[in-house]
Amino acid sequence: MFHCIDIRPATPDDAGAIAALMRMGVSKTVRLVTILGSPNLTRFVADEIAAGQADEYTVSARGTDVVGVCVWRRIPKGVQLNHLYLAPDMRGQGLGSRLILEGLRRHQATSDLRLSVDVFFDNPQARSWYHSWGMRREQHLKWVQIPLPPLQSLENVRCVITGLSEANERHSRYGFSQLSLSTPIARYAIGRLGDGLFRTTSFSILQDPAALQSLARIGFQRHLLCVGSVPHAALARMESATVVAESERLVSSSAAAINYLESSVSARNRGLRQSSI
Q: Can you give the residue range of the structural domain that contains 34?
């Protein structure tokens, strides 16, 4: 059936179909804690593709219909598979393997690379598939939601917020944004998701009252979402903390992934040829 499937670079005109596949491919929980829940996701994807400077979008198309999307990000000494989503009627037929193979072969043109992918625990089918390649877990991440403390006097609170004006503009356009917050203790990258969440990858912010008070001052109605590896004992000590999601980062060499996927695609093709005899 793949003779009618075209794999090509995405264009801004594909953004609506790509955003629909992304939303369809994750749970409601994941949409709530990531940018995939933004009502302006299509605008963001279109702008990303048009700029061509960050993530790399590849689509599979059946005629004029986009039925799959794969999104790559180059990182130091490696490549990250940021997204892979297929239309429901295209799943389980080898299209995902073809999309990933196309990207890995292109990125691995000069040397073997480290491949990484993040997958949520509420998607056991995807987790099982990636593990079947021989990918190993590098991190177990917990997504922990915590209410911000009540507002207090800003006296003696030393904090510098950088990029707020630009973040407000970006938030107005996309429904999410990022800013930087610095205190005498540390500097934090802070994401904003919709009207309800701040997000950070630093659990140490919970021990920084100046940072928490500054966030409460920006958006007292928001909760803080901390994402990272955290021991169960430490989690138990966090007052009013709720684990809303869990994910894992899987890694392998790109060469090993290519070998596995090429074997998988070849076996599938042999089966299709035999069934047609």
A: 2-139+249-276
Task: Return the CATH number at 98.
Answer: 3.40.630.30
Residue 119: half-sphere exposure toward Cβ, Cα within 13 Å = 21
Residue type, 73: R
Alpha-helical (H) ranges within 68-189 are 95-107, 124-132, 164-174
pLDDT, position 230 = 82
- Give average pLDDT by consecutive 10-residue segment, the chain, 277 residues: 81 98 96 96 97 92 95 91 95 92 83 91 96 94 93 78 95 97 95 96 92 90 92 75 95 92 82 45
Q: Are 104 and 78 in contact (CB under 8 A)?
A: no
Same domain (yes/no): 15, 127: yes
Residue 259 CB: number of other CB atoms within 10 A?
Answer: 13
Planar angle of CA 141, 143, 146, nearest 5 degrees = 140
Regarding beta strands 114-120 and 187-193, do their DSSP bridges make them parallel or antiparallel, or are they unpaired? unpaired
Relative orientation angle of helices 254-276 and 95-107, to the nearest 10 degrees: 140
Quote the CA–CA distance of 53 and 63 in Å, as a whole number. Answer: 27
pTM over 0.70: yes
